[in-house]
Amino acid sequence: MAYQAFGSGPRNCVGMRMGHLHAKLALARILRGYKVVPSEKTEIGQIQYEIKFLTIGPVHGIHVKVVPV
């Protein structure tokens, strides 16, 4: 894939890094006005994990609330 015009490798899309940076900045600006707090469903204490194909994740998920500051 190193020689594909806009694929992976050294000839990757020139705007991809800038696009990722802008997406991160937009998310940071949105979250700046909010606070992440545990919800009623949040498990306190030991979290049980399970293996799903190639990833490891919590059995019952992660539950949080996003509230305005």
Provide structural commentary.
Helices cover 23% and strands 26% of the residues. It is built from 1 helix and 4 strands; from the N terminus they run αββββ. It has one helix at 16-31, and strands at 34-38, 49-52, 55-58, 64-68. The strands form 2 sheets. Strands 1-4 form a two-stranded antiparallel sheet. The protein has a two-stranded antiparallel sheet with strand order 2-3. β2 and β3 (55-58) form a beta hairpin. The mean pLDDT is 83.
Question: What is the topological layout?
Answer:
Layout: H1 16-31, E1 34-38, E2 49-52, E3 55-58, E4 64-68
Summarize the structure.
By secondary structure, this protein is α+β, with helices and mostly antiparallel strands. It is 23% helix and 26% strand.
Question: β content, as a range?
Answer: 25-35%
Number of strand segments: 4
Taking the alpha carbons of the first and last residues, their distance comes to 46 Å
Backbone shape: flat
Order of helices and strands: HEEEE
Low-confidence segments, given as residue ranges, are: none
Main sheet, how many strands, which sense, barrel?
2 strands, antiparallel
> What is the arithmetic mean of pLDDT?
83
What descriptive keywords fit this protein?
69 residues; alpha+beta; two-stranded antiparallel ribbon; 1 helix; 4 strands; 26% strand
